[in-house]
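The following block was generated as part of the benchmark described in Methods. Ligand: D-xylitol-5-phosphate.
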Amino acid sequence: SRAIKIAPSILSADFANFGAECRAIEDQGADWVHVDVMDGHFVPNLTFGPAMCAAIRPHIRGVMDVHLMIAPVDAYIEAYAAAGADIITAHLEAGPHIHRTLQAIRHTGKKAGLALNPGTGIDAVAHVLDMVDLICVMTVNPGFGGQKFIHSQVDKVRSLRAMIGDRPIHIEIDGGVTVETAPLVAAAGADVLVAGSAVFKGGSVGDPAPYGANIAAI
Ligand code: DX5
Ligand code: ZN
């Protein structure tokens, strides 16, 4: 298994064929499946409720990585855990009580992730390092696939990796990951790369062959 994991975001998949799309990306080299949950409030877009996550769960053999872009978030954590998430990531900016939110995620027995928007510094992360399995560095402003990578985040990733030291915490990059930007964040210390448009471009359920080449290229 490679050192860098690729987690395709199904936000860029065919919404009428999630089961087939999940099977296709896993068959073609995806390490995790990334599910972007948006509430039309924390971010200006709406996507998947817990029922949708539960429906796609049987079509994912490996890790279902659920990124909650919702506020408030605590009341929904149980529902996404019950829907079969393996990792539940909440945003630092989604409420005043990230410590409580991370406790709530850990309480479900799922792995806990903490996401940071591009404008958010890493200082607060220092105080919850013992509570997280993953830190997601947003390299676009969350809400939509296909946006341009924000280069100022590369230094942030490097600082975060130094802060984490040898703790077993993943650094996940989310947004604008392409063949060009992936090496920059990998060199800075990221080990999980979310990619939506870069994985699903050129493919379809009927002809999913490009996914494997797209994943391998990243
Ligand atoms: C953005 C989402 C990302 C997004 C990535 O709010 O969290 O996962 O779908 O899409 P690309 O790779 O197209 O930037
Ligand atoms: Zn995401």
